[in-house]
Specification:
By secondary structure, the protein is α+β, with helices and mostly antiparallel strands. The chain contains three helices and six strands; from the N terminus they run ββββαββαα. Helix content is 16%, strand content 18%. It is globular and about 30 Å long.
């Protein structure tokens, strides 16, 4: 699906980046995976559709734009996302704080 001009792959992705795995009102981020430079709504969508294991972003890559706000289309750097306190710095829409449980899948912390 094309969201704010960016392709987001996944299972049952809606126009705000929600997928079949995470579909609450606050599930509005997609993550560009370091291993394939492809946006997915979640690690489960990546696991279902990619033909390779997840490789987390290294700390040296935290200036990379790798988070897409599904509300406004702003691409956050990893540092911006990690410091955003679970909301988009551009539109202030809230992100799901439960995503914090999976940060180590996406980023070397």
């Amino acid at each position: 699906m094309i969201i704010h001009g960016i392709e987001v792959k996944g299972s049952e992705v809606d126009r705000h980046t929600r997928c079949k795995h995470y579909k609450t009102e606050r599930d509005i981020v997609a993550i560009k995976f370091a291993c394939c430079k492809t946006y997915y709504p979640c690690y489960q969508c990546h696991d279902e559709q990619a033909d390779h294991p997840i490789i987390p972003w290294t700390k040296e890559s935290f200036q990379e734009k790798a988070i897409l706000c599904g509300n406004c289309g702003y691409e956050l750097t990893i540092n911006e996302y990690l410091g955003a306190e679970w909301s988009c710095p551009r539109c202030n829409e809230g992100f799901n704080p439960g995503c914090g449980n999976h940060l180590s899948l996406y980023f070397q912390l």
